[in-house]
What we know:
about 170 residues, globular, 6-stranded mixed beta sheet, single chain, alpha+beta, 5 helices
Amino acid sequence: MPKQQADRELRWANSDDDPEKLARFFVQNAPSEYISHGEIQDGRADIKIAWSANLETILSRQFFHGCRREGYGKFTETRVAVARLEGIDVAAIAYVGLERVAPVPYAVLCDLLVRSDLRNLNIGFDLLSWLEKQLREEKVSVLFLESGINNERAHTFFKRHGFSPVSINMMKAI
């Protein structure tokens, strides 16, 4: 059931949503500071911390499965959440991977992006709060995320939302 908050709608995407449109949204709104090890591992970015030339195609494939709540990559289930504002079809998106059969059922917030000209309107905060509520209702115990090392704005946002570091990921090209 979509949640209405004043001028916004927060909901899980479904098979009626266009994964290519969601991928274009991502490409238009994700700066290179966004890149973390997950983007490199998924082929979204290269080891030089630059977006892949095939980024939109890769994302379209991932979001296709997420809109259908199917497994993709390392996750047994993926989902896409969408925030809409009046007159704006996509104001923010979140891509989540779920593992319910793990000893501690968990989700990974792979992506949370707000349209660049709509930041500071609490859309990201509202979408993340909504996601947490949805996942709690489904008995998911822990929500993980990763963030690009230079994405200080995101780090501040997530810390304000109660996240704390649990590890450091390192990389070496060999």
